[in-house]
Amino acid sequence: MAARFREGEGMPRIRVYYADWQMECCGTPFAVGDEIAWRLVPAAEEDDCYGAAAWVENHGGPGRATVGRVRGIDLVHQEFLARHDPRTVAPPAAAPGAVVFVAAGRELEPVPGALTLEPVDACPEWFGAFEREEQPPRRVPYRVRRAVGVLVTLGTSPDGTPPHPGDLR
Asked: Superkingdom of the source (predicted)?
């Protein structure tokens, strides 16, 4: 069970990454000033957490929630190179004259260093509205800019900091 956050006590601040798919699947939107209780996983070197110390895990993770107050939110925009993915556009076998809907898939490859942060007052529930892509005529690969999550500055209670890997508090 999470300890209740009390304003005014020592408030260490940590940066937390909340991925777009975690919010869209099972998250609850929040705003600057809100009190939250999240299960946080310490970020490892191999995690793509955009410099955050921890990331939100809504599908498992530690049993103990970290309680804190949201002090800042930055929307994370990542630029990608997009290529058509032929595996998703191969038409299925169909009877003559049948209407077949085929997905026009794409493969996205992150462009190293092509990251921007946009300060916002609240975390969106859905991130699709923030996607922009090069318009035709274009060459392949083409560029796509997507919001991939938010970086949250979280003021935590003294006992609410995320546990170290393997800490089962």
From this structure: Bacteria
One-letter amino acid for residue 17 of the chain: Y
Q: Among 40, 5, 53, 1, which Cα is nearest to 155's?
A: 5
Q: What share of the chain is helix, strand, coil (3-state, %, to 5)?
A: 10, 40, 50
* Distance separating alpha carbons of residues 97 and 64, to the nearest angstrom: 57
- How many other CB atoms sit within 10 Å of the CB of residue 157? 20
Instruction: Fill in the DSSP letter of residue 151.
Output: E
Task: Kindly state the DSSP code that residue 20 receives in the 8-state scheme.
Answer: H
Give residue-wise pLDDT tens across range 68-102: 999 999 999 999 998 876 665 556 677 787 776 66
The one-character DSSP state at 11 is -
Q: Which amino acid is present at 121?
A: D
φ, ψ of residue 142 to 5 degrees: the values are -115, 165
